[in-house]
Amino acid sequence: MCDHCGCGDGGVVTVEVHERILASNERAAAHNRAHWLREHVVAVNLMGSPGAGKTALLEATARAAGGRLRLAALAGDLATDRDAERLRAADIPAVSITTGSACHLDAALVHSALHDPPWHGAIDLLFMENVGNLVCPAVYDLGEAARVVALSVTEGEDKPLKYPVMFHKADVVLLTKIDLLPLLPDISIERIRDALAHVMPEPLLLPLSARTGEGISSWLDWLDERRRRLFGDE
Amino acid sequence: MHEYSIVQALIRRAEETARAHAARRVEGLRVRIGTLAGVEPVLLLAAFEVCREGTLLGDAELSIESVEAQWACRCCGCGIAAGGALRCEACGGPGQLVAGSEIELDSIALEVDDV
Ligand SMILES: Nc1nc2c(ncn2[C@@H]2O[C@H](COP(=O)(O)OP(=O)(O)OP(=O)(O)O)[C@@H](O)[C@H]2O)c(=O)[nH]1
Ligand SMILES: [Mg+2]
Ligand SMILES: [Zn+2]
Ligand SMILES: [Zn+2]
Ligand SMILES: [Zn+2]
Questions:
Q1: Does ligand 1 come within 6 angstroms of the Cβ of A55?
Q2: CA-CA to B90 of 20 to 30 Å: which in A40, A131, A168, A210?
């Protein structure tokens, strides 16, 4: 019947496959990555729980660096355009990627947005705000150069231990909303660092507040360092 | 639940293979899922039950082999025990995951016609 496996004797044949089930997503991610390398764009996959402060972080990033860096964003959203609207109001060209019932962005969804982008000309940084979810987005490579997880101070110190997949793959974890810490005497940043060290080989936690701007400059330094690492000094 | 999109990719791949081999039906699939892959075996099975309906996998069995997470030093290769900081005791280097992130299709069992 076929030349590959000698089937044809009838009955059951077993075909050995040994391949990654998400191979097609990985191919699409590699294609996106090639786009961004060619265009000298640092692409950031921004993940975190619903309400962790992802959009607010991008608004604060635009306030602090909008004059110096050309920013753009894709916002993964189950059904609405709200985040992209907020980002556009903050002067970040942005488009929603409606994921419908899917709880994460995937590389093909991102690719279709890339070929008709909402920005004109060159950009330096592309933020992909993923769907608020600590589980599913961790599984899908988008072709990003940096994986960033926003964790807000109110979410509990054990989140890295409960969602190890998300945190182990992160390049940096942003501890957001630190302006609220005075109201939360039981929260210890040291305990969060300790939990991170159990799941993240090179734990890096940057505490910041989108509201007060505290810590935003360290975040921008981190992004600059990524950019230099990818494209050198230019 | 991304387990649905994973099952859909799996079914697509299995049906392609079944057609390439002119199989009557798919009898079973073996997959390997790492404990740090971000895929929940129970949810994968539930999604499979729903999605296999009306495909060549109508009564196929999905068997899932779970792969334990293993860490090793990125610098010297020594094993690093999970449950503590992911640092090498020998050289202080950072750990890297060497097993446990698998989301893999191992094999497909097909029922074929007698010749
Ligand atoms: N106090 C304080 N509140 C903040 C800060 N950042 C965000 N918030 C508030 O937290 C809520 C959620 O913020 P968003 O930026 O919408 O969070 P998100 O992660 O984008 O949410 P989703 O996209 O819906 O998952 C809003 O009410 C924000 O005003 C901060 O630094 N300090
Ligand atoms: Mg948002
Ligand atoms: Zn393309
Ligand atoms: Zn999911
Ligand atoms: Zn070592």
A1: yes
A2: A168
CB contact under 8 A, A8 and B115: yes
Indicate which CATH number applies to the domain containing A173: 3.40.50.300
For the stretch B31-58, pLDDT in tens is 999 999 999 999 999 999 999 999 999 9
Out of B71, B105, B112, name the one closest to residue A21 (CB): B105
Residue A58 corresponds to which tokens in the numbers above?
């991008």
Q: Whose CA is nearest to atom 29 of ligand 1?
A: A56
Residues 6+ apart with CB under 8 A from B74: A201, B93, B94, B95, B96
Say if pTM beats, i.e. exceeds, 0.95.
no
Judge if the beta carbon of residue A177 lies within 6 A of ligand 1.
Answer: yes
How many domains does one find in chain A? 1
Whether A17 sits inside 8 A of B111 (CB atoms) is no
The strand ranges marked E within A91-192 are 94-98, 125-129, 146-152, 172-176
Q: Which domain holds residue A216?
A: 23-231
- Chain-chain contact of A10 with B110 (C-beta, under 8 angstroms): no
Between the CA of residue B76 and those of A59, A83, A224, B87, what are the distances in Å? 42, 45, 30, 11
DSSP letter, residue B93 = P
Give the residue ranges of chain B where pLDDT is below 50: 115
| Residue A54: inside a domain | yes
Structure tokens that stand for B30 in this block: 């073996």
pLDDT digits (tens, 9 = 90+) for A45-91: 999 999 999 999 999 999 999 789 999 999 998 888 899 999 999 99
Q: Do residues A75 and A84 touch, judged by C-beta distance below 8 A?
A: yes
ipTM: 0.89
Which residues, chain by chain, have CB under 5 Å from ion ligand 4?
Answer: A 103, 136; B 1-2
- Output the CA A198–ligand 5 centroid distance in Å: 17
